[in-house]
Specification:
- The protein has 179 residues and is mainly α.
- It is built from ten helices and no strands.
- The model is unreliable at 126-179 (pLDDT under 50).
- The N and C termini lie far apart (37 Å).
């Protein structure tokens, strides 16, 4: 099972890139009992690892990493900031909603699209749950479009009929055309 493979990988690697990817996957494939495993990474020295651990917890329904996500939306590290902004969509807190509104309202806001997707996730359900069958690659651009995986991930989470249409789009030129 995918969740067991992820658990084994987290227990056996020290490669920070692998840890971040495994934590992102744990949020999608794990179960509530995996919160303890993700919690162990909340004190990691690497901010991006902490953000991915907090995001995994949020996707598993545990809000104990909320302050890490909120703080990381102000981070100087663009990847941590982007990941944290998107992950706020899985938190049911007033603070998360307020921070997403602030990001969207900022005309110079760098992560407005991620914040809008996070709001869509929050709006979909008061207690969003992670998909158990997502085929998206979290945090990586696909076919030259750096926003495709983020949007595809959001559509999968939202269980939207647009997700199927998105994956079926013509990508022969290496990019996805915007409608």
């Amino acid at each position: 099972d995918a969740a067991e493979a992820i658990r084994l990988k987290l227990a056996s690697t020290t490669d920070r890139r692998v840890v971040k990817a495994a934590l992102a996957s744990l949020g999608g494939f794990g179960e509530a009992k995996d919160a303890a495993l993700a919690t162990a990474f909340l004190s990691d020295p690497d901010e991006s690892v902490r953000v991915n651990a907090a995001a995994a917890l949020a996707r598993l329904g545990d809000e104990s990493g909320a302050s890490i996500l909120l703080d990381a939306t102000h981070s100087a590290d663009p990847q941590s900031c982007r990941e944290a902004t998107f992950a706020l969509g899985f938190l049911g807190t007033h603070e998360a909603a307020q921070r997403l509104d602030e990001i969207i309202a900022d005309p110079a806001g760098r992560w407005r699209t991620e914040a809008e997707l996070a709001v869509a996730i929050r709006t979909r359900s008061a207690a969003p749950t992670a998909p158990k069958h997502s085929s998206v690659v979290h945090g990586r651009g696909v076919l030259g479009d750096p926003n495709r995986s983020l949007a595809a991930n959001a559509f999968a989470v939202l269980d939207s009929p647009f997700y199927t249409a998105w994956n079926a789009r013509d990508t022969s030129r290496g990019t996805v055309d915007e409608d």
